[in-house]
Amino acid sequence: TDGHVWFLYSLAFARALLELTRRCGLGRGATLAVMLALNCLAAPAMRVLYDAAPSLSGARYDGLTWSSSEWFDVVGSRWFTFILYFAVGCLLPAEKLVQWNATTRGSPLLWRLALFTLGVNFFYNLWRLDLRASNLFVSAPPQQWLERMPVHIEFTIISTLSPILILLVLPPHRVGRITDWGENTLFCYLVHPFGLKLVYKPLLPVLLFAANGVAFAPLRNLLLFLILSVLPLLVQIGLCHLSIVLKATYQKWKNR
Fold first, then answer.
1. Rounded CA separation 119/150 (Å)
2. CA dist 179 → 119, 175, 241 (Å)
3. Torsion of CA 76, 80, 83, 88, to 10 degrees
4. Among 159, 86, 166, 156, which residue's Cα sits nearest to residue 118?
5. Which of 176, 170, 128, 177 is nearest to 153 (CA)?
6. Do residues 72 and 64 lie in contact, with contact meaning Cβ atoms separated by under 8 Å?
7. 141-191 pLDDT tens trace
């Protein structure tokens, strides 16, 4: 997967840290403050560690991939930056979400506003976001850390707000296959690097070459947009559906 499955390490660390804060008697606000501090300070803290112990920095992987060599570190900045979003999901009361969902869906204005904001977030991710220019994945000395902070703050807000907005606009009942896919997103999350490598990676250069060969600029731009936005979504849906098929196959085998 061009590196460690860091998202599993980060998830395990987040669960352990949440349990530790619970046992220490920290409330929701204090726990989120701890997670936010780790989210913001991981990049300079990891740079101090790498300067003190260069063998941990992943420098031996420089030039191996387009991304930072720190992608290959077992413990990296991304371990600590992404636990904030997991904590928000765990600490936000479910009854509050149900109440907000009812309020949003009961107001056409709020529902449209939530959808509009989700659309803005989507296009922001397409054209503005550059993870390599943030403190989310790569360590940084103090000056670079400060220069990256605006993008870091933007991404943190977007990544916290978008999932909540999705939950607010969803209907409170099952919606056929869409609900089935949603129930199987954990499988998709766990295996997405392999799915993207097997399906998306070999296909992407061919599609981009074909799209760039279109002389009519508006059509070319539309094709590039579809390739970079719709195709990843189809890969994720395919993985969710694969999970459904595997579960059904297992149940048939189990009940024989």
1. 21
2. 21, 5, 11
3. -150
4. 166
5. 128
6. yes
7. 999 999 888 888 888 888 889 889 988 998 888 888 888 888 888 787 777
The CB density around residue 100, as the number of other CB atoms within 10 Å, is 17
Classify the phi-psi angles of 174: left when phi > 0, otherwise alpha if psi is within -120 to 50, otherwise beta.
beta
Burial class (CB in 10 A: 0-12, 13-18, 19+), 80: buried
Q: What is the pLDDT of residue 38?
A: 92
Residue 54 DSSP class: G
Residues with Cβ within 8 Å of residue 200, at least 6 apart in sequence: 231, 232, 235
What span, in angstroms and rounded, lies between the C-alpha atoms of 145 and 44?
A: 7
Q: Measuring CA to CA, which residue among 8, 29, 31 is closest to residue 20?
A: 31
Mean pLDDT of 48-54: 87
C-alpha distances in Å from residue 123, one per residue of 26, 117, 127, 129, 170: 37, 10, 6, 9, 20
